[in-house]
Every structure is written in structure tokens, then in C-alpha cells.
Amino acid sequence: MIQVIPIKRDLDGNAKLRTHVLSPRLGVTLTLTIEGGKENIISILEDHLLETISSVEWNTSEDDTDFTFLTENYNRFIRNLEPQDLVDISVVVSLLRNNILTISAIGNATAYLVEGDDITPIAIPESGRFDFHTLTAGEVSRNAAIYISNQDSLEVLGNEFLFEFSAMNSAEFSEVAKTIFSREINIPFHLVRIAHSFKNVPQQPRQRGRGQLDLIKEKGKDVALKIKELPIWKKAKEKINSVDLGANEKQKYSFLAMGIILIFILIYMLLSAIGGALTTGISGDAFAEKVQQAQTLVEESRKLTGNPDAFTTNMQQAEALLAELRDAQKYLPDVQTIQGDIDALKKEVYGIETIDLTKSESIVPFGESGFRPVATFEVNNKLLLVGKTGIISDYVRGSDLPTIQTYPQNDSAIAATINDAGTLYIVSEATRLMTLRQNNTTYVSVTGQGTWELGSKIKSFNGNIYTVNAEQNQIYRYRPSANGFSQKTNSLTAQTSAKILDIAVDGGFYILTEDGKINRFVSTNDKGVVSLTLNKIPGAWKIDSGLSTQIVANDKLSYVYIRNGRTIWIFQPNSRQFQDINSLTYIAQVQIQSDSDVVDLSVPRDGQMYISTEKGIFEAQFQVKDGKFSLTVK
Question: Cα–Cα 20 to 30 A to 387, which of 68, 166, 411, 634?
Fold first, then answer.
């Protein structure tokens, strides 16, 4: 199995170097690395290349017409740009298909083949040309490794590291390379290794670069210096100095040396004990067996595409095995490859796309601010970010994080909505309504009742505020008044089939309930709460009420978006007239891969998503053409 493993060294604030690993279909993997001096130009070129990749029908034969279309389309596109904008651009694209690798590069981007005693340049730095004009293709043999990078990897790393990397299996390479990059590389540098998962290449003579022995020596010095700072060291030294050895300095330093040895022994025993405790449970052989089981399930699933139930069962079992391996931090490169195969199969059978946020950068630099997002809104091309303990208004992407405006009386937010006029309303932990006025958050009054009755879900339509009372399965409406909002009224005149999880308002109501039903209620007809028919749903449709859940729809969106945990479904209503909607047609399903929980989905317009997690805010663009969904992640 050939694996594609990207290793990135990104310095703080660098947004001018980007790498993507894409699998547009089963058995086809592309890589894209792009770097330049102007971030806006990088974004334009990156978007063009990603859009081309998503629009091409990648075949599984060895015909390279699809790859040449990608490069030639780029060459035509850059004719519209000024030459000075392209001077410092470096791009390298590669296509891996049926063990055949095809590469083309521009600028300082490089690719090297390491096999046996040889390091052979496949793509070398070249100045004066802004277009793709050379193409290299060949088979990735069992003992070969290809290294693709934005800069000359032979110059940055030296042939010693390239030989050593080539002798490692995927797990070893991933772990060692990340450590070396963080310690040794002081420039923005991305390296993609393409090689078989398990390798056995003999070590080669070293000529350039720093050896592992140097790193070990430096590490030893670091450990020794840290030990000298420990209180136990000082106490031991005082004890030794207090021993009356007369003028026999040799004996004194012998005791000191013995103390050092004892300390190292204690540290070794402690680390061994910790390592033993962490690895107790499943043995290495058992982990390897789980990798094999997952691979077998995936291979079997390829033959079950005509049997949706059996296919779904195999996919669920394979993903459960991968989840165990992720939790144990074992065989992560293999997990990544198998997950890629699963995603490709799901896309082929179900039309399921994947957004991998672990490979994307947050568009808002939270840093150490402690900002915890609750909701994200786009207003006049700027972002309005509602956090748990404060708000960030008028954020311009690419800028530093501005001051977080805290809520009055140390209150905190649990939900938020924005109306057509751009006015923000926030439900607070104190069950009060807040709004933003002249860059200050203030409370909003309600008349006709003693206090607000607000749930954890809030929406706005035609100036009204709608909130869910989950206990009563009722939707409250608050109308605007001169001093805030007037007393609540009930919106529903009929009961729902189960507890309400969330609502959306477009003139009528979409009501998502915990039994998985998407219901419809329109106050101007007498049909009551009607469960919508869901057409063309692949596999089993269900909602996990234990996960955070949203339904996003309004009178300006053409589609209905439902998020349940890290899964997003997209549906198209049968009518643009809200009174006539009685069914939804499945368009796509998107799986979000993230190392933190997803807390919010915002869709300001069809084609644009903002996904908020506990660690950042990410964006994705998409389009639906002739009923087919395609995705671009930034």
C-alpha cells in the first residue's frame, strides 16, 4: 500500500505556503503544494487549482490527459495575471494512480526519488518560467521514496536525512520527521513523502546534513541541564559537600558521579514505568491485527456497493477499528490511508464528502486568547464572532485577533441569531437577551412578562425572535416593540412527534425532532405539523440526539442544512414557495474530521460554510451543479 504523508513546518503568521492531499476518487490521490510572496495571489491560484481538480473526472487508467488538462488549464489562467505577481510563485502538483506517479513543478518546488544508493531529481528549482512545461511520470517501486517540497529538500535536509527517512516505515517517518522539523527547520517548509507503507531500505553513507548522533548529544545536554536545575540535585550536592572527606577531592567527586548515575537510573526507571503503563492493554501485534482487519473490511466493501446495508455495516466496523487506533495513537499513517479509502468509497456509493479540518488552518487566530466560539456570522464581508465569554465584531480575515468584548455582569452566551438588518441577538446563561449596540453588548428588555423565557435555540425572521421551549415542545415568538420585545406568544398550534432539537424559519417552520424527523409547520394552513418525505437518502437516516444538532434554512437559501455532531446533510426542498414544501431531496452528506468538537455551522449563502470548533473557525466552499455536490476546503 502506497501512502502519501505530508509533514509541515509552519512558522507563526505564515499563510503563504499551503499543501493539500486530495482523493477525488477511489485509487486516485493528488498533492498540491503552492508558495509565494503575496497571500492574495496564492489564494487566487490555489482556488483555481482546487476548483479544476474538483471539476475533472479523474480516470483510473494510466492515460494522463486529466493531469495535463490540470496543468494546461493553469497555464491559460495565469495569462490573465501580471508577470510581477508570478515571479516568486512555486507550485508542484502530483498524481498517484495505480502505483504510477506523475509530477510537474514550477519555481523553487522540488521532487526527489530516493532508491538504493541514489538520489535522483525529478523536479528541480527553475527560474524564469511561470508555467508548467515539464512532466515526469514513473512507477513507485517497493523500495523507492519520493519527496516533494516547496524548497530544495536536499539543500534543506541533506542527503543523510533523505536516506534515513527512506529506510523508515510510515509510522516511524511521521514521528521522526515531525520532531526533526520542529527542532532543525527554521523556515516554512512542507515535505510530502510518497512511499509504500512498510519499507526495508539499507542505510546509506552520509555526506551532508546533521546525524542522529548529534541530535542525541544535544538531547543529552538538555536533559543534564534540566537535572541540574532540579531541587533534588541541589540537595544531593549539599549532602555530598557536607561529607567530611578531608582533602580527598577525588572521593568527593566519586560520590558526585555516583549520585549522577543514580539520578539517571531513577529517571530511566520512571520513564520505563510510565511507558509500560501507557502501553499496557493492547499489544503491538493486536494493533497491527486491527489495521489488517480494517483493511480487509474496506476491501470486502468494494464488492458490496450493490448491497447498501452490508456496505454500511462494513464501513461502520472499519471506522470503529480506526477510532481505536486513533485513540491509542497507533499506526496513524495507516489509519489516514485507510480512512482515505473509506471516504473515497463513501463518496462513490453515497456521494459523501469529507472535510478534514486537521489539515486546514483556522481563518481566525485564536492563539492563547481562550476564545470559545458559540456562533459565527458574516456581515458585510466581515465576521461577527460570538464566543462563550465575549464577542469579536467586524473581524477582517487575515488580521490579528482584536480585543474580545466581554458581556455585561460577567454573563456568558449559549446561543445567537442575527436578523435581516444585521442586528445580533444573544441568549445568555442568565436567560436574558443581549444585543450589540455601538460595539457594546447590552441587555434587551421584554414587556408584558416578568422575565425572558428563552431556550438554547434562537432564530430570527421578519424582525421577530423565535426560541424553542424543549420541555413544552413549543416555539415562542417575541415581536419587536418600542422598548425591546413584547410578551411571548405560542407559534405551534399542534404537537410534534418528539422533542424539538432545533428549528429554522423561512416563512414557515422546519422543526427537527429527536426521532430524526424533519417536520414542517405553516401557520397559514390547517395541516398542522407534517413530517416531510426524504427522497434518495443513502443508507440509514438517523439523528443522534446526544450530539449538538442544528438545522439551517431561511428564505434566502436554496437548500436545507442539518448538522448532527460532525456530520452535515444537505437537502433541496421540492418548492421555492414555503407554503408548498412537503418533501426534501438528498443532495450530499459531508463528514467533518476534527481533533475537537464542532460547535456551530453557519451558512451565510449557498456555496459558503463556516464551521466552528473549540479550536478555531474554518471555511469551506461548495457548489451544486446538475444535482452533484462538489467541495473546496480552505
Answer: 634
